[in-house]
Write a structure and sequence with these properties.
This protein is an all-alpha fold. It has a single domain, classed as Heme Oxygenase, Chain A, CATH 1.20.910.10. Helices cover 79% and strands 0% of the residues. The chain is built from ten helices and no strands. It is globular and about 55 Å long.
């Protein structure tokens, strides 16, 4: 018999597939995503990331299993270092290499306090609910799982297809490395196992599925908003 999470993935297969095959991540993996689109995406994702660090703490606080809590604690350290470093290094690189394009296409993303796209704000609103209002480990761990599963999904989609160039630039390749490989795959599997472990009642199943589908939809909207954004009338 398939697990609860596998049942959700099968039931919402079309939405999940859409989330891991978006033009933004397709072009990122192929090394063809324009700098201004990548800059917009990373600027918006950094906003999400900074709030998201609080979610790790909330998840750890709600976790009822000592072994699982240790895994969560270790991941906080990894995310705080490796992903955080990539954001700032890559954003600086994009500004140094293509500032003219960024000023033309997305000048508001260059501000000290960049605008937050509406679709991104909707995602952050859910994140804030989970951090500051929600006390359901089922909802929080489901959100964590879906968020990370989408990233593993789009990376593996292209790794398995063999569409990632061998000489891919750092600005693309490092983001793929951070969301693939044995360690990240193990982390996503841990989250999946946690969802399966704690979803034991009909009420829990209902809550988990609602967050599952909501998160997938918000991921798609996030990618779309960043991909489509431009202030250049041309």
């Amino acid at each position: 018999m398939s697990s609860f999470v596998d049942q959700l993935l099968a039931k919402h297969h079309s939405v999940y597939t859409e989330s891991i095959t978006h033009p933004l991540t397709n072009e990122l993996c192929q090394g063809t995503l324009p700098d201004y689109k990548l800059f917009t995406y990373l600027t918006q994702d950094l906003k999400f990331f900074q709030v998201g660090l609080n979610l790790f703490g909330k998840t750890l606080a709600l976790c009822d299993d000592a072994k699982a809590a240790i895994t969560l604690g270790k991941q906080i350290g990894f995310v705080s270092n490796d992903e955080n470093d990539y954001f700032f290094k890559c954003l600086d690189q994009l500004k140094s290499e293509n500032l003219v394009e960024l000023k033309l296409k997305v000048p508001q993303m260059l501000q000290e306090d960049p605008i937050t796209l509406p679709q991104v704000q909707s995602y952050i609103d859910l994140l804030n609910y989970l951090v500051f209002e929600c006390n359901s480990y089922v909802e929080v761990i489901t959100f964590m799982y879906v968020m990370e599963e989408v990233y593993l999904g789009w990376a593996n989609y292209h790794l398995e297809k063999g569409t990632i160039p061998k000489d891919l630039a750092y600005k693309y390749n490092e983001w793929i490395i951070l969301h693939s490989g044995e360690a990240f795959t193990g982390w996503v599997q841990f989250l999946k196992n946690e969802v399966n472990r704690v979803v034991t009642t009909e009420d829990a199943k209902k809550k988990s599925e609602q967050i599952f589908l909501q998160t997938l939809t918000l991921e798609i909207d996030f990618f779309g908003a960043c991909y489509d954004y431009s202030e250049d009338p041309q």
